[in-house]
From TrEMBL:
Lineage per the UniProt record: Bacteria, Pseudomonadati, Bacteroidota, Sphingobacteriia, Sphingobacteriales
Pfam families in the cross-refs: EcsC (PF12787)
UniProt-recorded name of the protein: EcsC family protein
Length: 239
């Protein structure tokens, strides 16, 4: 079996997992999340939401995320993906180290972890896009990155909706938002905040915060990297 045939199979399994209905466990987790959110002070929710919007919106304008060179067009897919996996591993370890440090610093440093982690995730997505040969200076590619971000950190129901936005991407460009103001920022913020709250809440606890911060960051970045790989495979394997 060739490399392309192998990843086509992986891609199909990923699609089925994204589109299948939420499990009982998923529904229970969502209810727990809502309960936990009710105990978090409103000012904390407001601060996190504002940070998420500010940081993620920078995707569309931040020149610091466009520094990666696009690999030669003749580079094989297996070579590209080897480089992508190296990047994911590097950013997973970077995020874990950052989460461990901020988790050990108590509440204030743990709160500071949110914008730093977002910046790490966004930078990784730009790196992955470039390695697959896509020019992140184009608005449409930055928009695709936003949808990948949202897809990775949405509830089961939300992920299915986002998937429909990026499936057959080139055929849908004419109906997608043509500027950042028309993007559904509210949904992206809520989905991302709710997704990471449960994973990151224990980072605020004394003693265990450091270990939880390291593990949570590693797993969150790993999930984002895998989602990005599958999302770009959809486009490349279709062409």
């Amino acid at each position: 079996m060739s490399y392309e045939e192998t990843i086509r199979i992986e891609l199909e399994f990923w699609k089925r997992d994204i589109l299948k209905k939420p499990s009982v466990f998923s529904k229970v987790t969502d209810n727990i999340q809502k309960k936990i959110n009710s105990y978090i002070p409103d000012k904390v929710h407001t601060a996190i939401t504002a940070t998420i919007k500010t940081m993620i919106k920078g995707v569309l304008y931040g020149s610091k995320y466009t520094t990666s060179d696009i690999p030669p067009l003749e580079m094989s897919l297996i070579h590209r993906e080897a480089l992508v996996k190296e990047k994911i591993d590097f950013y997973c370890k970077t995020g874990a180290a950052e989460g461990g440090i901020t988790g050990a610093g108590g509440f204030l440093l743990s709160m500071a972890d949110f914008p730093v982690l977002i910046a790490i995730k966004i930078k990784l997505l730009f790196e992955i896009a470039s390695l697959y040969g896509f020019d992140v200076k184009n608005f449409s590619e930055r928009l695709y990155i936003l949808y990948i971000f949202q897809l990775a950190f949405s509830s089961k129901k939300g992920a299915s909706k986002v998937f429909l936005h990026i499936e057959d991407w080139e055929d849908k460009l004419h109906i997608l938002p043509d500027n950042s103001d028309n993007f559904d920022w509210k949904t992206l913020q809520q989905e991302y905040r709710d997704y990471i709250d449960l994973a990151k809440l224990a980072q605020l606890l004394p003693v265990v915060g450091s270990a939880v911060g390291a593990v949570a960051n590693y797993q969150l970045i790993k999930k984002l990297g895998n989602t990005a790989m599958q999302a770009y495979r959809m486009r490349i394997l279709k062409s």
